[in-house]
Amino acid sequence: MTSGLVQEYSHAVLPSISPVTTFVLTMLATLPALLWLAKNPTKPQFLCSVTLCAFSSFLFGWHVHEKAIIMVTLPLTLIALSYPIFAPVSFLLYCTALLSLFPLFTGPFEGVLKLVLTIFSILLALCIHQIPGR
C-alpha cells in the first residue's frame, strides 16, 4: 500500500513491498561500491561510489520521486567531465532526467519555459561534451 497527496493505493498486480525490504535491497546494491571505495579510496572512485550509491537508492528506494534522479545526474556529470568515456552515459541520463521532470511543470507559462530551458540546456550539454582535448 502506498499513500500520497491524492489517495492511498493498494497494488492490484504487483506485490506490496515493505520499507524494510527496500532498505535491505538498497544496502545490498550499494555494498559493492562501498567495498570498492574502502579498498582503494581515491577521488575518482569516491565520485563513482557516490554515483552508484545514489543510483541504487533511486532504483530500490521505497518512496522515490522524479527529482531523486538529480542525485545520480550531478556526480555522473562530474565524472564525465574528467573521464570523457562516461560522457554519452551522462548525457543520456541528463536528458532522461530532464524529461522526467516535465510533469512537475503544469502551467501554460511553464510549458514555454521548460521548452526553452530544455533546448538551451541540451545544447549546452552537447557543447560541454564536445570540448576537444578532454
TrEMBL record:
It is a multi-pass membrane protein. GO terms for biological process: protein N-linked glycosylation. GO terms for cellular component: endoplasmic reticulum membrane. It is found in: Endoplasmic reticulum membrane. Pathway: Protein modification; protein glycosylation. One of its GO terms (molecular function) is dolichyl pyrophosphate Glc1Man9GlcNAc2 alpha-1,3-glucosyltransferase activity. Keywords: Endoplasmic reticulum, Glycosyltransferase, Membrane, Transferase, Transmembrane, Transmembrane helix. It is an enzyme of class 2 (transferase). Its EC number is 2.4.1.-. InterPro entries: Glyco_trans_ALG6/ALG8. The keyword Endoplasmic reticulum applies. Its main location: endoplasmic reticulum. Belongs to the ALG6/ALG8 glucosyltransferase family. This is Alpha-1,3-glucosyltransferase. It comes from Cyprideis torosa.
